[in-house]
Specification:
mainly beta, single chain
Length: 93
């Protein structure tokens, strides 16, 4: 991954999502930095929030992946909208 797209704790990811007529965006799956594909079993919460660990803010999605809760963030920075997840330094979620 390009250095400008990552930090020690922030991983920008490719997300497959549904855009509802209501304007709501629902993530369905994502591709991790190393190319692995993960399906999202369920979205349990969507709220504005900041990532205290990785920095950045936006809509925080609480998702269930293989029965494990995780956070995904949809951030808008300088009119660029993109998804990221927190990671342990150098490790996947």
């Amino acid at each position: 991954m390009d250095d400008y797209l990552s930090t020690d704790y922030k991983a920008y990811i490719t997300v497959n999502c549904d855009h509802m007529a209501s304007g709501k965006i629902i993530p369905r799956s994502f591709v991790w930095e190393d190319g692995r594909h993960f399906d999202i079993d369920k979205v349990t919460d969507i709220r504005p929030a900041a990532s205290l660990k990785a920095g950045g803010a936006g809509l925080r999605y609480t998702v269930i992946i293989n029965n494990i809760p995780a956070f995904m963030y949809l951030e808008e920075d300088r009119k660029v909208t993109r998804w990221f997840m927190e990671r342990k330094k150098g490790k996947p979620p």
